Amino acid sequence: MFQLGTALLDACVLAILARSDTYGYALTQSVRGVIAVSESALYPVLRRLQKEGLLTVYDRAFNGRNRRYYQITAGGHGRLTQLCASWAEFKQKVDQVLEGGVS
Amino acid sequence: MTKDEFLSELRKRLKKLPESEQANALAYYEEYLQEAGPAGEQAAIAALGSPAQVASAIIGDYAIKQVDAEKDTAQKKDFGPLKTLWIVVLAVIASPIALPLAAAFVVVLVALLITVFTLYLTLFVSAIAVVAISIVSIVVAVIGLFVAPPKAALLLGLGLMGIAAGTALFIFSVWISRLTIQGITWLFAKLLKRKGDQA
After folding, report:
1. Global confidence as pTM
2. What is the average per-residue pLDDT within A62-87?
3. What is this model's ipTM?
4. Residues B48, A67: C-beta atoms closer than 8 Å
């Protein structure tokens, strides 16, 4: 079963990072453009994904301060593929219900 | 609330986490507020929610991860199940839910803990008593072997069985205690996390 909260958030974060590396603030804004999560919801997700080895971090100087970039790993790509498959299945089931295919 | 006030309040709320976790979270939120810029700082602080809410989201997620990790590596010396339980209890107390609700949580938790651990204490003591009596029986039986061999042999057998049963009971009570602590921690971490997600 697709866990809406956690899995969807993981999937969106990994998908955004699969396109390009980015930093916390920008990532939060991107995710919030799609899912209604609180601004403080992303840090625990990023920390967890990092500990699971699905993403790595590196620091870059920006305007005399630090920006921490998040980068997806090979393991992260693998997880993203799994999540996309679960999402497709979930989406299909919901579509069936919404279109009245299931009594 | 200014950026510095927000960060120092958050620092206070994260005190119970390991040093590296605190540093990481604080660096993240400092960078986050810098990105918002001086103009957007107030809006960003308002959108993040109170430092207490931000902290419970971090601690809740951390505790769940910790419980999972403990399941994987059965023994982890630097960060046992009791420490994790303690962090979660503190987080529940510190979190910005209605006070009566917090009080109810604490009362339920304390009642649970007292009940469960009294039960386990009984198990421990019984196990030790069984082993002790068995040892005495064996000693008596060994002496008695010269006087009344059949009776002594029976007593010896019973004594050995008693040691086996007592040891098994002891191992079981240790195992069930660990499991219960993990279970309670997990439950509270889950409650905390749900609240953090809503925040």
Report:
1. 0.58
2. 92
3. 0.81
4. no
